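HUMAN: Mind making up another protein with tokenized structure?

ASSISTANT:
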Amino acid sequence: MLRRDIIPGKYFPPGYDYEKEQNTAFFLFGFGVVLSFEYYWRLYQAVEDLYLHRDGKLILRENALAEPFGHLLSGQWMFFMPFFLFLLAMAINHYLYYHSAGGCLNLMRRLPGRDVLLKSCAQVSVFLMIAGTLLIEFLYLLYYIVYLLMMPSQCLP
């Protein structure tokens, strides 16, 4: 059977059932992305505020100033907070897994590499935090491009 794990099991503690954690992390990130689409509603309302409706036509208001991009995007990062909190809890859970496994914590501390325990507990969480942050920045870049395309150039702040 072909396994389609995005993150291989070797980055989790040995014998740890990691698939549920992996799926939960990806679900929380995807949920944050879907909720962040609220930005498009805010953008639509901001563009609508720039125009007057007269005789079935849209006329740009005089001296209309578009809402700044940062204001439209304010609070969007909160949709990703459950994802980052879950990753923090995931690292703590990995440490507790070693602690509850009857002597495994002492064994991990005696391994020749001093950072083996730390890597095993936090490596996946840190990687996903960095990857999530980069993906969020890419998403915000796309949002900014859409902002520039939708707003009339004479109304940009």
In short: Helices lie at 19-36, 38-48, 69-73, 81-100, 104-110, 116-150. The first helix runs from residue 19 to 36.
